[in-house]
């Protein structure tokens, strides 16, 4: 599967326990997206374009209005790396 570097960084953050928090407008459509790591840091690569691609591919999903988390397919799409700091 062809995955951009930005998508890969977001998927790694989600695989390590992070989440995508989506702010929605009055019509229910997403206005902004924040990718937050498990340590509480904000990841700059988690923007609306990356969010839409990950949702369209079925790699992230939200349950009961919570933050978006990685699916099983998303975990399989992540390339193995020793850590996400490089």
TrEMBL record:
The name this protein goes by in its record: Uncharacterized protein
Taxonomic source organism: Albimonas pacifica
InterPro entries: YjhX_toxin
Taxonomy of the source species: Bacteria, Pseudomonadati, Pseudomonadota, Alphaproteobacteria, Rhodobacterales
